[in-house]
Specification:
heterotrimer; A mainly alpha; B alpha/beta; C mainly alpha; A: mainly alpha; MetI-like fold; 2 domains; 11 helices; 0% strand; flat; C: mainly alpha
Chain lengths: 331, 259, 317
């Protein structure tokens, strides 16, 4: 690139560059490699660190939980349990009442939040045209998903004291609190699912002279159904482990209560907490050898194991539903 | 039998933006009319106003008249949903309902409209529509398979069967072959030739050879510049359009010397 | 088929169903606004005696709660708020780097199969109920972590926050923060992972084509792209930590001080755990006071979540 010929080249007069100057030195390259390796190592460590608590939680719960987890534990409630003494049935009390309470209260929460959440998502995706109201609702749904669970409990409690009367405690109150926590999750997941239904399908349906309502119910919702169901199951899995709001709304009793609308009701997470708070059971000096002082903790672990199993199974079902029944919309 | 469409002084807006300006066109019954023109000239938009499909886009509206056999589709007492049962539409990409079988796809228009239909009537309608769409022989043994499992060309013919099963008077087709391979395209073109005995057909196409092959009349849409409204530049029978156009822009466009 | 049959075949119009359906959908949208307003209103209404009621009775109730330590609402909620913010911030600090590390591992380092498994593991962590974290924290972590805190107090005790002696059992702010960090880790991880995965491939390849190492590519392309997303994920994690009740209630030995002695017991308490622990014994007025503190918590989480969402909105716009 010299100016030997007289043709004017654009490089005429350009500074001469010694590219060797910019070559990275060998030690610099090595340093970069070391840094790269170090970061890889750090990132791998981060992930191992995260695994420790997970496995510790799972393993300790399983090891401690299986000790008392048997048919007797699942089929009796806590009536007639005195201190660390065994009950006439041969067990040490159980969680039947808590399982029933959890199922009823969670079912109540589903009945409230799933229809409202789904229809809210339908409004946002199909009717709102992304106007101002829709943006406000979306923002508030996000804000709602950040409501602390204890505040949801306080809300349900305040609402029932004001509307029904002071000191109202029943299972349905717990359902209201849980539905407040479930609602944003249901709205969000349904919204996502409705959004990914191809627009083509709506157009095809409209072009057949089908009304908007039938297009939505029979084409859009039908196509999005597996995703919506999966989202709802995951939302249930999230609230089924809630404790704090149920402490103040549904209360705690030892016997089985089938009536969602009257009387206190125990749920599994609350049961775990109550047993944990008991620390030790009393065994009088003359008690038989069958009296176990550590029985509350053992019951807490066993109930925790049942709770974890329920949550994990729900998660598994939720994911499987989404995968197995997914509607293929593309070739 | 097909019905004719007369469009008078049609202006189409997206919100405040005038997308297509002052369209006047007379679409003959039982003929194939093709809309051609450069991208963005509004030919698809005009097509969609013929069955009020543009209204599902928020803010889209139009002024002027669209007369279907003399009856204005934009009269106050006309239900847009009912319009779409008289004027069917087939889309660019085949879009069978993924949750439905081939049979259910054909019956979708009737069933979604909450009509109870007896099994034998349904069987007849499915066979009639699939035969009409040249698809019967290919799928008659697997009517309960999902519609999404067919090939692209078959899917598009299934969509045509689905559209004719509602028994419209007019069929609108928005680039129905643009997502298909040449052989499937040929099958659909043959079908269009047969369908015009029973329906009035309006087709938007990017492919001028296709317009020359299948259309009786051709409308050339154009726009002055990007951002300007599109308009109908030239409308004539297909032979004239492609052999001896009396319009400079159209001549430049069909001879490939556009722009 | 002749066109005569057409009139007979005219389907039911369905116009009314259309209107009803739209109305219901619209109402459900509005209901979200109503519910959120109702939450605020019912809480305010129930907490009203605190503001409009007999102030003498109020201060009596509060000094009853605190053993005479505080007499006004603000001197009561002040230390609680301090404790809440302290514990959540610590949890966020612990969790942040680990979460971002795991997110990067999943999005850019791990082979695809391992990455899917890891994503499941992180989701699993998120699925475990907080009461079980509380149980695990109280019965397993508290004894297990004591030697470590003891070591920290011994060698780093000259830093005021690590001032010893380390409490045994270590039902302390430090231990609670670790448990909360584990609890918010999946939130931050999954959001960061999603945003890292969205890094434009072109930018990544541009960096690699310049001869960058993998870490340099991450630093040049991935981190700048994901920055605001990671920040808003952290805010959401913080929001979750602020409102966490059970884990704190079951692990922490509470106190009402403006203290940063992380390794000593009975120093701080959070609003949420305080509500849960005082609630069973509270009288009518006491409940009003607790709901008042709940409102403060609601406001703070509201602000934190609001900021987080605004950041996400900006990032995705």
């Amino acid at each position: 690139m010299t100016a030997a010929n007289n043709d004017a080249s654009p490089m005429d007069g350009a500074p001469v560059i010694d590219f060797d100057k910019f070559k990275p030195t060998r030690s610099f390259i090595a340093a970069r490699k070391r840094k790269d390796l170090a970061m890889r190592a750090l990132i791998a460590v981060a992930f191992i660190v995260a695994l420790i608590p997970l496995f510790s939680v799972l393993i300790t719960t399983i090891i401690n939980g299986v000790k008392r987890l048997n048919l007797n534990f699942l089929s009796y409630n806590m009536t007639g349990v005195v201190g660390g003494n065994p009950t006439p049935s041969g067990g040490y009390g159980g969680i039947l009442h808590a399982i029933i309470g959890t199922l009823e209260i969670t079912f109540g929460a589903m009945l409230i939040s799933i229809p409202i959440g789904l229809m809210c998502a339908v409004y946002l995706v199909e009717y709102s045209n992304r106007g101002r109201l829709a943006r406000v609702i979306t923002l508030l749904v996000d804000v709602m998903s950040g409501i602390p669970s204890i505040v949801a409990g306080l809300f349900a409690f305040s609402m029932f004291t004001i509307l029904i009367g002071p000191g109202t405690i029943n299972g349905f109150e717990g359902s209201v609190a849980l539905s407040l926590l479930m609602l944003p999750t249901v709205v969000k997941s349904s919204e996502e699912m409705l959004k990914i239904v191809p627009h083509d399908l709506r157009e095809a349906s409209y072009a057949l002279g089908v009304t908007k309502q039938r297009t939505i119910t029979k084409i859009v919702l039908r196509t999005a159904l597996p995703g919506i169901v999966s989202g709802a199951i995951l939302a249930v899995a999230r609230v089924i482990g809630e404790t704090a709001p149920l402490l103040m709304t549904a209360g705690y009793i030892a016997s089985t209560n089938f009536n969602l609308f009257s009387g206190q009701m125990t749920t599994l997470p609350v049961y775990v907490y109550q047993e944990y708070s008991k620390l030790n059971a009393n065994c009088p000096a003359n008690a038989s050898a069958a009296c176990v002082t550590t029985i509350p903790m053992e019951r807490a672990w066993a109930a925790a194991l049942v709770l974890i199993l329920i949550v994990l199974i729900l998660n598994l079902i939720g994911r499987l539903v989404a995968k197995v029944f997914a509607v293929k919309s593309e070739r | 039998m097909g019905q004719r469409i007369d469009v008078n002084h049609l202006n189409i807006y997206y919100g405040d933006f005038l997308a297509v300006e002052d369209v006047n066109i007379n679409i003959e019954a039982n003929k194939v009319t093709a809309f051609i023109g450069p991208s963005g000239c509004g030919k698809s938009t005009v097509l969609r106003t013929l069955d009020r499909m543009h209204e599902i886009i928020p803010g889209a509206h139009c002024k002027g008249e669209v007369l279907l056999e003399g009856k204005n589709l934009y009269d106050k007492d006309v239900d847009p949903v009912a319009v779409r049962r008289d004027v069917g539409m087939v889309f660019q990409r085949p879009n069978p309902f993924p949750t439905m079988s081939i049979r259910e796809n054909v019956l979708a228009g009737v069933k979604l409209n909450n009509r109870k239909i007896s099994k034998s009537d349904a069987d007849d309608l499915v066979e009639w529509a699939l035969r009409g769409a040249n698809l019967w022989n290919e799928v008659k043994d697997r009517l309960d398979n999902p519609g999404i499992g067919l090939s692209g060309g078959q899917q598009q013919r299934l969509c045509i069967a689905r559209a004719v099963a509602v028994h419209p008077q007019v069929l609108l087709m928005d680039e129905p072959c643009s997502a298909l391979d040449p052989i499937s395209t040929l099958a659909v073109e043959d079908l269009i030739n047969e369908l015009k005995n029973d329906y009035t057909i309006v087709i938007v196409t990017h492919n001028m050879q296709q317009a020359a092959r299948i259309a009786d009349y051709t409308a050339f849409f154009n726009l002055k510049a990007v951002g300007q409204p599109g308009h109908l530049e030239y409308f004539t029978d297909t032979t004239t359009m492609f052999n001896n156009p009396q319009n400079e822009e159209a001549e430049r466009y069909v001879s490939g010397r556009f722009g | 088929m002749s066109s005569q049959s057409k009139t007979a075949q005219q389907p039911v119009s369905g116009k009314n169903a259309d209107k009803v359906f739209k109305g219901v959908a619209y109402a459900c949208g509005i209901l979200i606004l109503v519910v959120l307003a109702a939450v605020a209103l019912f809480l305010l209404f129930r907490a009203w005696p605190l503001i409009g009621g007999d102030q003498k009775a109020n201060s009596d109730t509060i000094s009853n709660f605190t053993g005479g330590k505080a007499t006004s609402f603000w001197s009561y909620v002040g230390p609680l708020l301090f404790g809440t913010v302290l514990i959540s911030t610590l949890a966020l600090l612990i969790s942040f780097f680990v979460s971002v590390g795991i997110a990067l591992f999943i999005s850019h380092y791990a082979p695809k199969k391992l990455a899917t498994i890891l994503s499941y593991v992180v989701d699993l962590l998120a699925a475990i109920p907080s009461v079980i974290y509380g149980l695990w924290g109280g019965l397993v972590l508290v004894p297990a972590i004591y030697p470590f805190w003891n070591w920290v107090a011994k060698y780093l005790g000259w830093i005021p926050i690590f001032a010893g002696p380390a409490a045994n059992p270590s039902r302390t702010v430090a231990t609670v923060s670790v448990v909360l960090a584990v609890m918010i880790l999946p939130i931050i991880t999954s959001m960061s992972r999603d945003i890292f995965l969205q890094t434009p491939r072109l930018q990544e390849e541009a960096a690699l084509a310049l001869g960058a190492t993998k870490w340099e590519m991450v630093k040049l392309a991935v981190l700048p792209f994901g920055k605001s997303g990671v920040v808003s994920a952290s805010m959401l994690g913080l929001g979750r930590a602020l409102g966490e009740t059970m884990a704190v209630l079951m692990i922490l030995s509470p106190g009402l001080n403006y203290s940063v002695k992380l390794l000593q017991a009975s120093q701080n308490q959070t609003i949420a755990a305080n509500i849960a622990s005082q609630y069973p014994e509270a009288n009518d007025l006491g409940v009003s006071v607790l709901i008042g503190t709940g409102l403060v918590l609601f406001l703070i989480t509201f602000v934190v979540n609001f900021v987080a969402r605004k950041l996400t909105e900006k990032a995705s716009a």
